[in-house]
Design brief:
Length: about 230
Amino acid sequence: MNAYFLSILQGTLVSVSVALVSLCISVLLGLLVAAASLSNNRFFSALALGYSTVLRGIPELVLMLLMFYGGTMGLNYLLQAAGSPSSIDINPFLAGVLTLGLVYGAYMSETFRGAILSIPAGQAEAARAFGMNERQTFIRIILPQMIRYALPGFSNNWLVLIKATALVSLIGLQDMTYLARQASAATRQPFIFLIFTGALFLLLTSVSLWVLRKLNDRYSLGTRQVVLL
């Protein structure tokens, strides 16, 4: 029995790895898509709108199965068309992080876009009046304020992303949910192992909330003083 609990604990590392890599992809995509949606270029703004609409409208599980099975079939079809005898199998970890990164990149883009729109336009105008270029304005003026406005939405997206990592168990990745199901089938005691897995997810989300609250306090220091006055 203890060996099963230990294996689920080891699977937690896989779940956390999936969540962190997916977060990096989603943040990068979110920033790019948010910038595209706010640009004056109609093509980029339309592309950003299409990406956000499609990725937020299709369930994560459907996209993950499509990425894992459909992606493998598509790549092998291209290889056969090119005359190559070899075949490719998409790694479950890669399929999982790409799917979650793409999906939550759409959610992050809306979070970042809303945060940027919340910053008064006079802030950027004042920075340019002081001689700052676009890069300096973004790094020194826009980004710090964007983080403060984006943190509540970012926190919600991150918490949902952590829980969504359980979906990778359905494509064969041995995360803690997959191992909990295996232990449940072997011992016929699903309640114990699923409760244990749920407690691990709760621990991860609780630690995340604590860290995010600290970040929120850090970026809200100045605003809280102004409000109190």
